[in-house]
Queue: 3 jobs
Job 1
Amino acid sequence: MTEVTSSSRASETGAESTRNGPVFAPVADIFETKDALVISLEMPGCDAGGLGVTLDKRVLTITGRSHATKPEGYAPTHRDYREGDYQRAFTLSEAIDGDKIEAELKEGLLRITMPKLQPAPAKSIAVKAVE
């Protein structure tokens, strides 16, 4: 099994937040296949242009901002859904190929596919005679 550790707060990743509003840790599921790890995160209210996915020193960080919407002419009387920023970080193992990570957003679900590094094939090394 490939190892991934999670951090939901900026202070755990060594960064401090200067945001004025709430910061949410999106709910995440991690799945493993033979060739990749896949992280699925709930990011309601975010659009692809407002999401950030970065990899720095094996730390994958996901950021975004949700925008509350209401139909035109309606006034909210109760709101469970809140507007704010999302942030979550994952420390990836050395077994992940950071150059091939892909992310896609569909219906509020962000899917990040992280291919595993393929093991180097065995090779024969020639031995030279030295005199």
Note: The first strand starts at residue 4 and ends at 7.
Job 2
Amino acid sequence: MKPLLDFGLLVFVSMFTMMGPVGVLPPFVSMTSGLSGPEARRVARRATITALCVLLVFALGGQLVFRFFNISVNSLRVVGGIILLLVGYEMLQARPSRTKHDEPDAEGYAEDIAITPLGIPVIAGPGAITTVIILMSEAHDLARKAVLLTVLLGLHVLTYAMLVSAKPLLAFLGPSGNKVLVRIMGLIVMVIAVEFFFAGLKPIVRDMLGR
């Protein structure tokens, strides 16, 4: 039971920091400022459902893509670790990550901002997609896969709840509190990135030395 709890905690911390629901709040508030309460809630619901569908597709089908292109999971761990390290560094500097959200891309989507840019790439960005593929590769049995999918679903429910409560949450945290929280999450992301990097590098080095 404890290994499952440990894996569930790893999934929660990894995906929470990469989806960054706290960092989603400011763009969500700015993009829905002209909408009514029910309309904003519909946008939040559609954005979280879109992000969940995207991450589920990559979690369940990512391995097939790797086999088709003959890409090893260890290579993804190394590259994913580097990507997460860069994302975590930018979060540590309290800067929004360029791999996650580009502010100019948020303009011109008056009709449907829920799918793009909120669902993709603000919530389900490259970092979150890479992380969920790596975590699924670490789930070696059905129990771990079930834990991963359950935590992923729960995180999107939490993200939706945070989005519909965005204005009060931002007012409670304030600018300083938001920056502190982002920096803490950035540090956690960098630690996870190092673990991913060396977990992928060690088997590659062993194979090279074995030859």
Note: Confidence is low (pLDDT under 50) at residues 97-111.
Job 3
Amino acid sequence: MDVADYVIPPSENNGMFVMTNFVRTNQRQSTCAENIELKQAICKNDNICSNQSFIPTMNGRWTGRCLFTPERNIVYQTRSVITSSKGLCEYAGWCPPEDGESSMMLVQGILNFTVFIKTFLEFPLFGVKTKNMVDNLKPCIFDPIHNKDCPIYTIDYMLNQAEDNSTERDLMLRYGGFINIKLHWDCNLDRNIKLCKPKYTFSRLDAPFHEKPFSVGFNFRYSSTWKQNEEHFRTLTKAYGLRFKVTISGNAGKFNFITLTLNIGSLIGIFGIATFVSDIIVLYISKKSGAYREHVFEKLQLETSLNETKDHSKLCVKKNEDQLLNDASNTDR
């Protein structure tokens, strides 16, 4: 048993996988030589295979034997009796091992495949539900000019929107990639909800191939097994493809009189505080706070001095009136 037997690709919510390339290997339970791409499996004798510690990339349990492949006689077009000096360690498991690059098979016409994006949206605060499909939806393909409300997109269109470089697009079809489909809703609920349409954007999430990341593309393995004449068989498939992830965001608004009055009251309060705050800034924080302070205080001092002058003049007039009254009374006597 290996990883392809007990790891089944799970179904994913808000996402999908489209296979664009694959490697298929028909296998049976037997013993055979290891994969030639595994450097640790290259051997010259049985001791190398029997003393080798566990390697995660082994295709099965090593038997301890070193298998030598006969060399072909170019002159007589027959297999030579003399074997090669280097062989491969033998393992017991599913045989033969998977042959990667040489047996890849691209899915023909994959760019013409279409994807129907079907989503539903709810704004619980307003009790409104909607969807990204028109009521009279007919078989269509999205076009930014003639069919912009159609939610059916071709793989070719989405791939071109997510990646501009043609070389990168070809590598994504060969080794897989990760594309995000984002739907953004911006709804004015004072209008008919049918007028609210999502905006679609496509972006690439995996690292570009020219950056040479540790793990490129997107792939996984799955297998189908059966038994015939007491012998176990399976078909191992390594699938490369485009993984699409759908994300939804949005906001909605509706007129509310109470909210309007609260906002107006808040603005009035802010304007009242603004005068107080501006005075503090000008008097204590501004570089020219001294000149502003002198101007304000000088004005207050001038008003105070004028008031004192008026009070003094009133006292003088009152004293003169009292003196005249006293002189008049003395004259009468």
Note: The CA atoms of residues 71 and 304 lie 118 Å apart.
